[in-house]
Specification:
With about 600 residues, the chain is mostly beta strands. It is about 10% helix and about 40% strand. The strands form 4 sheets. It has an 18-stranded antiparallel barrel.
């Protein structure tokens, strides 16, 4: 069949289009760069599976014109360096002696002589505190006429300035191992001024007025630490420390938190997964108004023997467990001790007021860490012992008491919420042969708000019940002691139940806001009725509300401003102990500035 003109034109168009496409492809190929030359030394050739020789790379020979080799006669340039710690200084990097963040001779970054280092620290602690506490009316010769009530005016204030100087000499490179030797000395200077509205609230002598100025120089640490031996290639070790030294029995300081005189053997095992302490301590007298060690008087007849062991990552990863046995042997029953303000603190003014000795053994478990996303701190103690003659029962008593505390928290980005609970056993019958109220050796708990809490921060007195307090200053236990620092332990007490909730909000790297609310309740109030010569009051103590602010302007611990306010809304039991209309709402306001070098 003859081709039609339309089909012929179509075939010519297709042929032309194909020619154009071939031309474009040819041009594109012509413009592509030539492939690089093959380098057999760098080429990886495919191989069959199985054993084979590893590829080897032979570097090209150096170019003599670019890298001239050193000659034997060429002088070597060397820079003398006193020691390896001063290499940066030899290179021209200098820092001021007041700069603790760069190499500093005073901060142990550079040796003074051979491998001896010094570490100097200075802390300034300034405190302003205002509070309202139940205060008994002054004596008959009161400054205010018509003061015939039992309770007087309760507004009080305190200013305290404390300067801590820390001096340490350390031998050895402590980057990976403990020091060979350490000698530490920490003197502390304190000045305090207190004002009250009632006579004899500060001193036993009413002629000394309603204002008290006092100062004291204490020695908080003075010890020698000797490294005995290393027991593994990862520097597990045994060391001994002799002298005045800090010691905390558990993670939150519930049982024994002090700086006593003693001898302590301590060390680690299994790549630091195990830590242990074996120690004997003799407690030192405290200055009444500052709480610092008073080395100008003889140590107390109060000995503490401690054995404990820590295990990291047990029972779960990220959680540390501790088991402890502590024995407190107190032989101060034959002594009478008056504090610096003239008040009798040993023996306590309760019962027949006669002295007593006691021996108590504490068996406890503490845990701290996280389980998944939850943070957990838990502590439990069982106290077993004997009191040779308690002043209330006036007979020998066996001591069987218990304590438990727990804090559960969780972090949500910049916020942490927490729940806390504490139970201190109480004594239901003060006159029997069993003392079942738990008491510590010397507590300083970091729990349920700590310093921001009214109940923990303030010493709430038992007005009209002798010279004892419902709770000691910086203590949580309702132990009815004459003094937390200078008094004896007392296992005939009402006990305490605390249930709390709180939270920490990091609003900025420099600013943290804290809040806490706690419900407080006595476990048994029979002993309170005996001391007040009345029917046992109700168990309800009240609700403790507190809020605090922490500001770190440099995002470090070198300058920290703490401010807090707390209030204790009295419950029925507290009102019955004081007055149905008094004390009203108890409160405290605290401002604290800490500067550290």
């Amino acid at each position: 069949m003859p081709r039609t003109p339309v089909r012929a034109a179509s075939r010519r168009a297709h042929a032309a289009l194909a020619g154009v496409m071939l031309g474009l492809a040819a041009g594109a190929v012509a413009e592509e760069p030539a492939p690089p030359e093959r380098d057999p030394a760098r080429e990886v050739l495919p191989r069959r599976p199985g054993p084979s020789e590893p590829q080897r790379y032979v570097p090209p020979p150096p170019d003599p014109s670019q890298v001239p080799p050193p000659t034997a006669a060429a002088p070597r340039e060397a820079l003398p360096v006193p020691d390896r710690w001063r290499i940066m200084r030899a290179l021209g990097m200098q820092s001021s002696w007041i700069d603790p963040y760069n190499q500093n001779l005073l901060k142990g970054d550079l040796p003074v002589v051979r491998d001896w280092f010094v570490n100097v620290g200075v802390v300034s602690d300034t405190l302003f505190e205002f509070r309202a506490l139940p205060t008994p009316v002054g004596p008959q010769a009161s400054e205010r006429p018509d003061s015939l009530d039992v309770f007087g005016r309760g507004k009080q204030s305190t200013f305290a300035q404390t300067v801590v100087l820390s001096l340490a000499a350390i031998k050895g490179d402590t980057t990976f191992k403990p020091p060979d030797y350490e000698v530490r000395l920490v003197p502390v200077l304190n000045f305090n001024r207190s004002e009250v509205e009632e006579l004899r609230a500060l001193r036993i002598d009413p002629r000394q007025g309603r204002t008290r100025d006092d100062d004291h120089v204490g020695l908080q640490e003075a010890f020698v630490d000797v490294h005995l031996r290393d027991v593994s290639v990862r520097y597990d070790f045994d060391s001994v420390r002799v002298g005045i030294q800090p010691f905390i029995s558990d993670f939150r300081g519930f049982l024994f938190n002090d700086v006593p005189l003693g001898v302590r053997l301590f060390g680690t095992r299994d790549n630091n997964r195990w830590q242990y302490n074996l120690a004997w301590f003799r407690r030192l007298e405290k200055d009444t108004n500052s709480g610092l060690n008073d080395v100008g008087v003889a140590p107390r007849k109060d000995d503490v023997f401690v054995a404990n062991a820590y295990r990291q990552d047990w029972p779960v990863l990220g959680f540390t467990s501790q088991a402890l046995i502590a024995v407190n042997v107190n032989r101060e029953g034959g002594d009478e001790f008056y504090d610096a303000n003239g008040f009798l603190v040993r023996p306590a003014v309760q019962g027949d007021g006669r002295g007593h000795d006691y021996t108590v053994a504490y068996v406890g478990y503490s845990g701290d860490g996280h389980i998944g996303a939850w943070n957990l701190t838990a502590t439990a103690y069982l106290a077993l012992g004997r009191d040779d003659r308690h002043p209330i029962s006036q007979s020998e008593q066996s001591i069987v008491a218990g304590f438990a505390a727990m804090e559960l928290s969780r972090d949500f980005s910049w916020a942490r919420v927490r729940l806390s609970a504490l139970l201190q056993s109480g004594d239901r019958d003060p006159f029997d042969d069993r003392a079942t109220g738990f008491d510590a050796i010397l507590e300083n708990p970091q729990f349920a708000g700590a310093d921001t809490s009214f109940w923990i921060r303030q010493g709430v007195p038992l007005v009209g019940g002798g010279g004892v307090a419902l709770s000691g200053r910086n203590g949580v236990l309702a132990s009815l002691r004459s003094s937390r620092d200078q008094g004896q332990s007392n296992f005939v007490n009402p006990g305490l139940l605390l249930l709390g909730a709180g939270g920490d909000l990091d609003l900025a790297p420099q600013l943290r806001v804290l809040g806490n609310v706690s419900y407080l309740r006595f476990v048994s109030t029979e002993v309170l009725g005996v001391l007040r010569n009345q029917a046992p009051p109700a168990k309800d103590i009240g609700v403790d509300l507190s809020a605090a602010l922490q500001w770190r302007p440099f995002m470090s611990q070198n300058l920290v401003l703490n401010a807090s306010a707390a209030a204790l809304v009295p419950g029925k039991g507290l009102k019955q102990l004081y007055d149905e209309n008094k004390p009203g709402v108890l409160y405290s306001v605290l401002v604290n500035l800490i500067a550290t070098f």
